[in-house]
Amino acid sequence: MNLDGLKDVFAYLEDNFDNDLKATQQFLRRKSISATGEGIRETAEVVKGMIEEIGGTSSIIETPGHPIVYGKLDEGARYTLLIYSMYDVLPAEEPDWISDPWAAEIHDFKDYGKCIIARGAVNTKGPTVAFFNAIKAYKKVKGNLPVNLVFLIEGEEELSSKSLQEFMQDNKAKFAECDAMFFPSFGEENRVASIFMGVKGIVSFELKAKGGSWGGPTERGIHGAFAAWVGNPAWRLVKALSTMIGEDEKEIRVEGFYDGILPLPEESEGALRNSADLLDEEEWKKAYAVDRFKWDLQGLDLWKKMLTVPTLNIDGIKGGYIGEGSKTLLPHEASVKMDMRLVPGMDPEDMLGKIRKHLDKHGYSDIEITEYGKSYYPSSVPYNSTSVQTLKRMYEQMGARPQIWPWNPGSAPYYLFGKILGLPYVTGGMGHGSRQHSSNEYCTVKGVLDFEKSMIYYLSLFPEVAEELKNSQQ
Amino acid sequence: MNLDGLKDVFAYLEDNFDNDLKATQQFLRRKSISATGEGIRETAEVVKGMIEEIGGTSSIIETPGHPIVYGKLDEGARYTLLIYSMYDVLPAEEPDWISDPWAAEIHDFKDYGKCIIARGAVNTKGPTVAFFNAIKAYKKVKGNLPVNLVFLIEGEEELSSKSLQEFMQDNKAKFAECDAMFFPSFGEENRVASIFMGVKGIVSFELKAKGGSWGGPTERGIHGAFAAWVGNPAWRLVKALSTMIGEDEKEIRVEGFYDGILPLPEESEGALRNSADLLDEEEWKKAYAVDRFKWDLQGLDLWKKMLTVPTLNIDGIKGGYIGEGSKTLLPHEASVKMDMRLVPGMDPEDMLGKIRKHLDKHGYSDIEITEYGKSYYPSSVPYNSTSVQTLKRMYEQMGARPQIWPWNPGSAPYYLFGKILGLPYVTGGMGHGSRQHSSNEYCTVKGVLDFEKSMIYYLSLFPEVAEELKNSQQ
Question: Is the ipTM beyond the 0.95 threshold?
Answer without folding.
Answer: no
